[in-house]
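Milestone M4 deliverable, item 7.
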Amino acid sequence: MSSPRHAQHSSWFLLIVALFVTCLLVSNVTAVKLVMVSGLVLPAAVVIFPISYIIGDVLTEVYGFARARQVIWLGFLCNLLAVAAFAVGGALPPAPFWEGQEAYQQILGSAPRILAASFMAYLAGELVNAYVLARLKVMTGGRMLWLRTIGSTLVGQLIDSAIFIGIAFAGVMPVEALVAAAVTQWLVKSAFEAVATPVTYAVVAFLKRMEGLDVYDGDTRFSPLPLG
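Output delivered:
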């Protein structure tokens, strides 16, 4: 079911979009730190980036694939703007008394290869995640939300991890290490989604009630580009 309110930007929708973009931008900055968790080496962004997938699930489940696709591309553009601002800030000559230029470059100055890998992995993973969830919703008649959220995350995160690790570190790490790193990130992020399933259920139910929406993408054109 959908309603005329679907065409409007409600306060709840804007809040969800803001949270999604914030999670994306923060995760890209915190990803530069590597942490050791239970013997596994992971980027610190692992604590927040999976939240963007949960929000993406909520967007698709409540507002439909087309709205989720718009938000995914908005996040991409915001991330591109942030990276450009960091690059310009790093290129500006530092004040003579400021000693943080090296630290700034190390944290905020990413190599072009890493940026390309991050952008491609994000777009592919998020769009596939939204597509799979929307398709499963139609196939299941809106039942078994847990199957849709976990199933779409397993597929989306697999693609995200494989693309990022493959592009960013191919030729730098042995093939076995590349596969191990991609699988580890995939499993950790997917487990995060599974553990957060009760929260996803609660947020989805709340938004459907507040918005009066429950969009099914039976006739949606599943183009990756938000055109037409």
